[in-house]
Design brief:
Radius of gyration: 37 Å
Low-confidence stretches: none
Helix content: over 70%
Largest sheet: none
Strand content: under 5%
Amino acid sequence: MNLLWQEWQIVSQARTFFARAVELERQRAVIDEYRKLFNDRYQRSNTAMQQGNEILPTVVSDLAALQAVETQLHDIEQVILKNRHDLNALLGLAPEAELQLVHRVSVPASILRSWSHPLRPARRRPDLLALAAGYEAEEQKLRQAIIEQFPKLNIGPNYTTTRHAFIRQARH
């Protein structure tokens, strides 16, 4: 059960890293879109200023917004790299190894049918199996403690009592 529990924890952590990687990539794509929009805005305002149609404070604010988005993009890329490094370490891979994470996973219908029964996950999940085994072990300890409260009963002939009775009968 201990080994099964450790495997379950690793799988759970890998799922967490996978979900985080997918979500971070989505966030990165959104921030990259914002970067493209702010870059386009800055380029237009800069061109307009050079033509005399825009003032410097507008261009500076557009540049500041572009730099803020680029900082966010840099920060999320660092988080993505850390998440991938942590996933590689969990799986025992080299830090530079690149895993191709599949965002959409299809589960065969036969597996989905086996999961549909409400009691089957309890028989399959290692954490629940370990919990049940722990309860069973504690139940056995409790039963043993209850049994040990009572004196041991020995059923059998008591030869000392029989011998004394025989001696008494022989004297009479």
